[in-house]
């Protein structure tokens, strides 16, 4: 009986390892702290997950815009480990969206925003990191604020 239990535990651990390496890492939460956001998000994904240093990653947000995204919009990406900022990136959101074929202004409508960036090399891999993705419009209104927990490589490779 104990031998069967041990075999079952080994099988579950092996399945968990394969599942973890396939990319089911990211859980999102709203970090707008009660402020209204211009994008009511219906779906959100991060790919690849985990993100890999020096490689592109894409945040894809689908939802309804209550205000257009205008020239001068910004995206900030902050990574925290043990509540300490360990990664920062700031980009012109319209430039990033234009690289994927979406020109600003983006009108009030149901839309999909595909935001692809390169994870800068001044970040280490393999640790659980909290990432905040904060998009603001040119008038400083929040477009969205989403927090992602990325568990790092945990044995996977990029």
Tell me about this structure.
With about 160 residues, this protein is α+β, with helices and mostly antiparallel strands. It has a single domain, classed as Immunoglobulin-like, CATH 2.60.40. The protein is about 15% helix and about 40% strand. The chain has 2 helices and 8 strands. The strands form 2 sheets. Strands 1-8-7-4-5 form a 5-stranded antiparallel β-sheet. The relative contact order is 0.25. The N terminus is likely disordered.
Layout of strands and helices, then pairs:
Elements: H1 2-21, E1 27-30, E2 39-47, E3 56-65, E4 74-81, E5 84-92, H2 93-99, E6 110-118, E7 129-136, E8 142-150
Summary keywords:
disordered N terminus, globular, three-stranded antiparallel β-sheet, Immunoglobulin-like
């Amino acid at each position: 009986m104990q031998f069967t239990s041990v075999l079952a535990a080994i099988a579950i651990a092996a399945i968990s390892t394969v599942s973890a390496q396939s990319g089911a890492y990211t859980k999102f939460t709203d970090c707008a702290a009660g402020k209204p956001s211009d994008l009511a998000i219906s779906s959100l994904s991060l790919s690849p997950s985990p993100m890999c240093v020096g490689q592109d990653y894409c945040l894809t947000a689908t939802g309804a815009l209550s205000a257009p995204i205008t020239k001068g919009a910004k995206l900030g990406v902050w990574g925290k480990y043990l509540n300490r900022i360990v990664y920062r990136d700031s980009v012109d959101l319209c430039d990033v969206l234009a690289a994927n074929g979406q020109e600003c202004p983006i009108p009030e409508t149901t839309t999909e925003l595909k935001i692809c960036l390169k994870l800068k090399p001044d970040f280490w891999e393999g640790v659980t990191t909290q990432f905040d993705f904060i998009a603001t419009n040119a008038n400083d209104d929040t477009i969205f604020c989403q927090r992602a927990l990325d568990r790092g490589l945990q044995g996977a490779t990029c």
